[in-house]
Amino acid sequence: MKKHLLLLCTTTVLPLSVFASQAINDAKPVTDQIIDMQRSELQKNTLGKGFGPQSPRDIDNITGSNQQLFSFAPSSMEMNLCNIHFHKNAEHKGGDFSRYAGNGDGKGYNTGYQYTGQLTKKELTPTSESLTAALHNELFPGDTIEVHYVYSTAKVKPGPTLGSCLSDSIKNPALRVESQVFVLVNDKDALNFVELTEDTMKGDRAQAINIPDNSGQPIQYLGSTTGPSYNQQGSPFQVTWSVRPKTLKVDINTVAEWLNDNKYKENHAHGVRNLVIDPLLLSGIK
After folding, report:
1. Are 283 and 66 in contact (CB under 8 A)?
2. DSSP state of 275
3. How confident is the model over 171-181, as a mean pLDDT?
4. Do 239 and 55 contact (CB within 8 A), yes or no?
5. What is the DSSP track for 50-83?
6. In the beta sheet, which residues pair with residue 144?
């Protein structure tokens, strides 16, 4: 069981030395050939081996022919919130987050997709040196993040890592991710990230109570867990995704506040898995 937890949680439990350094931001991007090689390895390691549809994907493209299908998870209101975390840059592409950030370091950093809208000079005001340090020199005004509110049909409570979504009683719970993309602004009138991640018990179910409902009709599809550890290997976990197509503005100061103190023990932005583009590794969008 612990081996499976580690697989599921790879994007959550890597040491901070992987994430928190200016060197990551300054790293020279890998070539297109490296990304092509990773995609080729993913194809070789998955096709014909029974893997289900993978994530992330272009939510504006409904093409997908993976036949290893499974049932859609129930509504999040019928499930338990088990984890919240976020990635620097959107893992998914589409809506108003379709600008490619570049190939990055080949390990999930400085890649993904960015908000395509315009921000004001005030919204882009640099943060203080202490706040930048609190954000591990990774996040700045104008950056895009994709937040994952993870739900499980197991009887679990919100907690650290995606392992909180599994239990000894149910080895294969249905999983759902409610995804929302935000752009960071230095504006105290923008959305408050601490409030966006609040949860409460509704009956006997843990629920995130402030997931935005004004960012477009969510695109729902069958996929997998994400994160750069799956750039060359298929994820064996089945996930129902709901990805909202519109980006909202969130106050970067409140993101720093949340990273400093949250029940999920999150203190950094996670890396991004390469966009999955092979139709044989994608489901059709509902």
Report:
1. yes
2. P
3. 95
4. yes
5. T----S--BTT----------PPPPPGGGSEEEE
6. 183
Task: Locate 165 and state its tokens.
Answer: 């979504």
Tell me if residue 205 falls in helix, strand or coil.
strand
Rounded Cα–Cα distance for residues 181 and 179 (Å)? 7
pLDDT of residue 25: 57
Tell me how far CA of residue 153 lies from CA of 164, 171, 213, 238, 244, in angstroms.
12, 11, 22, 13, 22
Provide the residue type at 259 as one letter: L
Q: What is the pLDDT of residue 11?
A: 38
Q: How far apart are CA 21 and CA 264, in angstroms?
A: 22
| Structure tokens belonging to residue 197 | 């991640």
Cβ neighbours of 159 (radius 10 Å): 16
Given a cut of 80, whether residue 152 has pLDDT beyond it is yes
Question: What does the pLDDT read at residue 69?
Answer: 82
Distance CA 205, CA 139 (A): 33
By the 8 A CB rule, do 27 and 101 touch?
A: no
Q: Token pair 């999150």 is at which residue?
A: 266
- What burial class does residue 214 get, using C-beta atoms within 10 Å of its C-beta: 0-12 exposed, 13-18 middle, 19+ buried? exposed
Closest CA relative to residue 255, chosen from 188, 194, 197? 194
